[in-house]
Specification:
Elements (H helix, E strand, L loop, with lengths): L1 H15 L24 H4 L7 H11 L11 H7 L2 H8 L1 H7 L4 H13 L2 H7 L1 H29 L1 H21 L10 H26 L2
Helix pairs in contact: 5-9, 10-11
């Protein structure tokens, strides 16, 4: 009886033992989970959907005026807001010329800007400039033009003052840990998105006008 029990156990164990002649197959991770009937999404995916650039081109073919590739129409908005006439009425051009920035000076500055890589930088960031910076400048121009005209009338000192005020306000927020009510975020972080570029821009404008002053 014992020999019969041992024989049965040995036969059962041998049935579940791996065969020495069978090689273990290597496993490979796939989106199809290795199933023959499953679809390989990468092979069946259209080339137009492989990557952001291809997807944007595909959207242009589907609908030209789509949100993904829509650009802010600078020329149309300038015409609708009548900004050219508003610039002339505010006397911005005449005041720029009074401060030494005329067409001849602009022509001299263009090669220097190209050597510094500023023009190439602007060309490589057209999307950001057109959809990010341009709307702020164009839409705010009716309110900014009188302020800019007044600053140009005062000279570089007005721009230095603006830089000092905006920079000082950002420093105050940072030093005192001021938080925005209700949301509790640091005012130095949120306000810095406007105050820091404003400080740099106004200080740079003051330095530029000071160097151009005849």
């Amino acid at each position: 009886m014992k020999f019969l029990l041992l024989a049965i156990i040995a036969s059962v164990a041998g049935a579940f033992a791996p065969s020495s002649g069978m090689a273990r197959q290597a496993t490979q991770l796939q989106e199809s989970f290795g199933l023959d009937f499953a679809e390989d999404t990468y092979e069946n995916q259209p080339d137009l959907l492989k990557g952001e650039a291809e997807y944007k081109q595909y959207m242009n073919q589907v609908k030209e005026d789509n949100m993904l590739n829509r650009k802010y129409n600078v020329i149309r908005r300038v015409r609708e807001l009548n900004l050219l006439q508003a610039t002339i009425d505010a006397g911005v051009l005449s005041k720029l010329e009074k401060n030494g920035l005329d067409l001849a000076t602009v022509e001299k500055l263009l090669p220097a800007a190209e050597e510094l890589g500023l023009l190439s930088l602007a060309a490589n960031n057209q999307q950001l400039l057109v959809n990010g910076v341009a709307p702020l400048l164009v839409e705010g121009a009716p309110f900014l033009l009188p302020v800019v005209a007044g600053a140009l009338e005062a000279g570089p000192s007005a721009f230095y003052l603006a830089a000092a005020v905006s920079g000082g306000l950002e420093a105050y927020f940072l030093a005192n840990g001021v938080e925005i009510p209700l949301i509790g975020l640091p005012a130095s972080l949120i306000g810095g998105l406007l105050l820091v570029p404003l400080t740099v821009a106004t200080a740079g404008a003051g330095v530029a006008l000071g160097s151009l002053k005849k």
